[in-house]
Design a protein that fits this description.
The complex is a heterodimer of chains A (about 90) and B (about 325).
Chain A lengths: L1 E6 L8 H12 L4 E6 L2 E4 L3 H6 L7 E7 L3 H13 L6
Antiparallel strand pairs in A: 1-4, 2-3, 2-4
Chain B lengths: L7 H6 L10 E5 L13 E2 L2 H4 L11 E4 L1 H13 L3 H6 L7 E3 L7 H9 L4 E4 L3 H15 L3 E5 L1 E5 L2 E6 L6 H10 L3 E4 L2 E7 L3 E6 L7 E4 L3 E4 H5 L7 E3 L2 E7 L14 E5 L2 E10 L5 H16 L4 H22 L7
Parallel strand pairs in B: 2-3, 3-4, 4-5, 8-15, 15-17
Antiparallel strand pairs in B: 1-5, 6-10, 7-8, 7-9, 10-11, 11-14, 12-13, 16-17
Classes of the chains: A alpha+beta (about 90), B alpha/beta (about 325).
Chain lengths: ~90, ~325
């Protein structure tokens, strides 16, 4: 199991498009991947789940992956956050 | 208990309808609206108002009815304000005045000075206290969120669970199409109320009754299927766990073994339903719901069937005696 804490850098936060990006990326990996905001932890392969988190600008998000390709998974998801989901 | 803080402002903002509505509004002490409510209990502060503070449950919401309000007016008319000043030295979350009767001016002033919010409700104190208890107990009930879809099928709350992409949402869509109701898609928040009832609802009101269907994207179920196709909350009574057909796994063929899943300490009957092209899952779920209703009425199809078989075998062996199959007798 691997964890990494990251911060949302795009102004709009995680709305539908970033959520879709996360789900698409997470779907490529076999590991079980979840995102955690505060006490809420959801499956990163579920788009409605991610939107439900209601994660706005500068919210801290913990990426948790468990499985054979966990390192690559955390790395790939974190890169999306770093690149501001290709926004602003 | 909920780890998130629940403030007085959250209490006023709760979107409650009909028999749950509290009809609260804040009349003074607005600066204290951020005060936290930590306990689902309420207190009638009669003794504290008269100056007795031993075992005073100050951490609870303080409810003031007709009697306490009249006593406060008496104190005000006699100019006895010391006791009242002392009550505000406790970190009370808020006072709620029932019957729509605003507090005596000196009490309101003291509250304003102490930044202690005073709320007013038009409801009678008995009604208000039972509603408050119900609402607060729900808020402080243990809760968890699960990944799945909650639907109501023939009156039974069914939680469809399974891996991403196994077809939970598609199954739910077909069920809605067949006249059943969607409660929540993807993220279901479950609260354990009154010890043994699991109440499921959508985790987020803003998202409402939307669903994600592969290939279509996000759809609004209320707009597409009408308001009859949705429900805000429903008790979780059965779990249907959808999984890819695994030819090595043994699936239940009779239905006399009862598997359950533990959610917040409550055992919920669980069925493992294998998914394979050509298997019509919505119809299986519908049948499971009807079968569950039969069980609740005291009729267990599988057990009843087995009992009939046993009785038949018994009678066959009894008849054998008369038909002389056994020559020794």
């Amino acid at each position: 199991m691997l964890e990494k804490t990251t911060v949302i850098r795009n102004r709009a936060g995680i709305h539908a498009r970033p959520a879709a990006l996360i789900v698409q990326t997470a779907g490529k990996f076999k590991s079980k991947i979840s995102l955690q905001k505060g006490d809420d932890c959801i499956n990163a392969k579920s788009i409605m789940g991610i939107i439900t988190l209601g994660a706005g600008f500068e919210t801290e998000i913990r990426i948790i992956a468990d499985g054979e390709d966990e390192a690559e998974a955390v790395e790939a998801i974190d890169r999306l956050f770093q690149n501001r989901f290709e926004e602003d | 208990m909920d780890d998130k803080h629940f403030s007085v402002l959250d209490l006023i903002d709760l979107d409650l309808k009909e028999h749950d509505a509290l009809e609260l509004r804040c009349i003074c002490g607005r600066k204290g609206l951020g005060r936290e409510i930590n306990s689902p209990d309420i207190n009638r502060p009669g003794l504290a108002l008269s100056g007795f503070f031993e075992s005073f449950a100050y951490q609870r919401v303080q409810l003031i009815g007709r009697g306490e309000a009249a006593y406060l007016h008496l104190l005000a008319s006699e100019g006895r304000e010391d006791g009242v000043a002392k009550i505000f030295s406790f970190p009370i979350p808020c006072f709620i005045f029932a019957n729509g009767e605003p507090p005596a001016t000196m009490f309101a002033q003291a509250a304003e000075a102490a930044d202690c919010p005073i709320l007013l409700s038009e409801l009678s104190s008995t009604e208000l206290s039972s509603r408050l208890m119900r609402v607060l107990t729900n808020i402080f009930a243990p809760k968890t969120t699960v990944h799945g879809v909650l639907v109501e099928v023939y009156g039974i709350g069914i939680l469809l669970t399974g891996e991403s992409g196994v077809g939970k949402s598609e199954t739910a869509l077909e069920l809605i199409e067949r006249g059943h109701r969607l409660v929540a898609d993807d993220v279901v928040e479950i609260r354990c109320v009154s010890g043994n009832i699991l109440m499921g609802s959508g985790a987020n009101k803003v998202i409402g009754h939307h669903m994600e269907i592969r290939g279509l994207g996000i759809i609004n179920v209320t707009h597409l299927f009408g308001v009859g196709a949705i429900r805000d909350k429903k008790q979780v009574q059965l779990i249907c766990s959808l999984e890819e057909w695994d030819s090595d796994k043994v699936y239940d063929r009779i239905g006399t073994d009862e598997k359950t899943m533990d959610i917040l300490g409550v055992h919920v009957p669980q069925l493992d339903i294998p998914v394979k092209p050509g298997r019509n899952i919505p119809i299986i779920v519908e049948t499971a719901a009807m079968n569950e209703r039969l069980k609740k009425m005291g009729y267990h199809s599988a057990k009843e069937f087995n009992q009939n078989i046993l009785r038949w075998l018994e009678s066959e062996s009894a008849r054998a005696v008369y038909f002389g199959r056994d020559d020794s007798i």
